[in-house]
Amino acid sequence: MQIPKWTKPALWGAGAGAIALAVVGFNWGGWVTSSAAAQMANKQEVAAIAAVLTPYCVENSKTDPKSAEVFVEFKKGNSYQQRQIIEKAGWATPLGSDKPNSVLASACQAELSKDI
To answer: What is the pTM of this model?
Structure first.
């Protein structure tokens, strides 16, 4: 069987085109691997949960009997300390959970800082 002369250049061109397409697609086309997509989805899920639970945290801060004492300490601290104060007060602990959610605490801290 005779292979035409143009077969080798055509295969090289197809291979180079496939590589170029992959480079362009992943760098500028918005293509991602499944693990990168899973990481992005996880980040969006955590952010959405924090956004939904932020009013719960703010409401906990208003109804807590020790809120006046906590707010005095909250005003004195820097942003990192304020997040820890919110976690320690239990305002960022969702119902049914044993430990506070740090993303929720950060969102709550940002919301409570607006009022100060």
So the answer is: 0.66
